[in-house]
Model the fold of this input.
Amino acid sequence: MGSTAVLAGAVTAPGELRAAAPAPRLRRIATEEAFMMPEMYEAMKAMPREAMANYDLRFMYRMAHAAPGDDERRRLDSLLDIEHRRLEIMDEFGVDMHVLSLTSPGVQEFEPEEAGRVARATNDRLADIIQRHPLRFAGLAAFAPQDPKSAAQEMIRAREQLGLNGFIVNSHTFDEYLDEEKFWPILEAAEGTGGAIYIHPRAPGASSAAPMRNYGMEGGFWGYGAETGLHAVRLILSGVFDRFPKLTIVLGHMGEGLPWWLPRLDDRTRAANRLGTADGQLRMLPSEYFKRNFLITNSLFRDALALRYSIDRLGPENVMWSIDYPYGPTAEAVTFMDTVDISDVERALIYHRNAERVFHIPPVSTG
Ligand code: MN
Done:
């Protein structure tokens, strides 16, 4: 149904004269687009009020109990709706595809058995929706790191039987990080099925949240990025990319600060190797792992300088576009990517080609 949208509504690049027959506009694949399924909503709703002690659970609790008409109720409705209003908004702004992911913190605050059940039900429903709208939606499979072996089984099922496009995880699980050996079955399943793991933010765990409890820092102001950047640095320094060299990790929010930190991480790694203070010897420098094993998306960063820097530091083949629907505005995300001063080749890679490659999305012909 959405195939004509790819051809319609040509947009000319800034400063370019409109040709008599305008070229078709670039396909727009948004790569960090949140949704919720009824199973997660029900599990959230059943959580006790004591849950308010944790930032992510407070967020879930407020959303699960929001009154009709509240902003949070509207956001919940936007998350639960996939095939109606969401598609209208996509059409209105010429967004061809959402790569869907279960909203943070996903299943990671539930008891292991329930978490696995909610992840499986979510992946089944997601696969059905994609089957109904193959040109409008792709989807990242949820899994429950609480039980790494079952998680790996579900990841393999999601890629090989359901045909989902990769995986979503929301940073730490009960303060534990994917570099720890108990989680290696998850990394092995991702590498083995060619599915990238999108490490989406959540609030810092109990051990690191305390200093961020002032000034509203636990969430989007600082905590999300600090937490998720920490997770990525742990992965790099642990050496898991020597063990799983084909593992691909995706980070949102312009790489959660890491592109800027890479020269410093390289410098410290060289010094630690020289002094013999490194925990273990890495085969490559942090920046080399980052370029080989990571892609970033610009979710909620609409800053031309940060984008230019990231492209130059990582290469244009390692940057993707995202809206962060429904948390971020679609109109601004499209306008930014249409008008930001980058080359046509770069724009095509960021808008769709990199997403097609990394998330196994078939390219479409634009005539
Ligand atoms: Mn997001």
